[in-house]
Design goal:
Elements (H helix, E strand, L loop, with lengths): L2 H8 L3 E5 L2 E8 L5 E5 L15 H8 L4 E5 L16 H14 L5 E6 L1 H12 L4 E7 L16 H22 L4 H4 L10 H14 L2 H4 L3 H4 L14 E6 L7 H9 L5 E5 L7
Parallel strand pairs: 3-4, 3-5, 5-6, 6-7, 7-8
Antiparallel strand pairs: 1-2, 2-4
Length: 271
């Protein structure tokens, strides 16, 4: 029986509802230690099992952890939004999920922009974080390293231009599978069947309008907070990551004094 089928059957999707916000999550395994996975831009707790390697990754993690996965606001099976959540709201959602599953302290594993959020959460809520693992992430969005320090009258129009440019590209191409394709390791050959899986995953993860709410991501700059991350930290970055350049992982690790850097070659942007 395929691992993906077994995990989907074993791990029923549950929903946490608070103050009009609905968050979808799954719990896999029963180990004593908890692993909270913080997703990036796109997530779908059920359909993710159709992506090559995902179910195997979750199954391996359950050998050591109780694994909690979730869809952030506006993604997957969580409730839709009219506007992007703030970083503070995203951190509140991590805390809510942990409270809901009875996790006082956990290993936080953040992917992509979820890695930057996880670093911020670790700095602001150190009592809830046992260890921090960051994969394919950044401290500040590529190309905006020097923009966030500019005066508001210069910074604001530059950020708006970046957002409009990305929104236009996303609306044009969303649903053709290219975005998720670029998260996969370069060695993965995308045939017709996998292409259809990627297309469906994109369409089921969020709407083009939801994806267009990248103004929050463009404003992410956690560099000032990295010095406050004191838990054991591992930063992983792959040379074949097509969305976040390798040097971004190095720069992120450099901001956390004690962090260890794990250099990968063929892991792509996901796992």
């Amino acid at each position: 029986m395929p691992v993906s089928f077994m995990l989907k059957r074993m791990n029923e999707t549950q929903h946490l509802q608070r103050n009009g916000i609905k968050l979808a999550y799954q719990v896999a395994g029963s180990a004593a230690r908890d692993l909270i996975i913080v997703p990036g831009v796109v997530s779908h707790v059920e359909f993710a099992h159709e992506i090559p390697g995902y179910s195997h990754f979750i199954a391996r993690m359950t050998e050591h952890f109780r694994v909690i996965t979730s869809d952030k606001r506006g993604n997957g099976l969580s409730g839709r939004l009219r506007s992007a959540p703030t970083l503070e709201q995203r951190m509140d959602d991590i805390r809510r999920i942990m409270d809901e599953v009875g996790s006082d302290k956990a290993v936080i594993f953040g992917f992509s922009e979820g890695g930057a959020l996880s670093a911020l959460y670790s700095a602001m809520h150190s009592e809830r974080v046992d260890r921090l693992i960051i994969f394919g992430s950044f401290a500040v969005v590529r190309g905006l390293e020097n923009v966030t320090s500019l005066p508001p009258f210069i910074r604001t129009p530059l950020l708006r231009w970046r957002v409009r440019s990305e929104q236009k590209k996303i609306r044009k191409n969303w649903g053709n599978g290219d975005f998720i394709k670029h998260t996969l390791p370069t060695k993965v050959m995308v045939d017709g069947k996998l292409r259809r899986v990627l297309q469906t995953h994109e369409e089921s993860s969020t709407t083009p309008e939801g994806m267009a709410n990248i103004d929050l991501i463009s404003q992410v700059d956690v560099r000032p907070f990295l010095k406050d991350v004191h838990c054991p930290t591992f930063v992983m970055q792959s040379h074949d990551d097509r969305l976040v350049p390798f040097h971004c992982g190095h720069a992120l690790r450099a901001g956390i004094a004690h962090a260890e850097f794990v250099e990968l070659n063929e892991a792509g942007h996901n796992f």
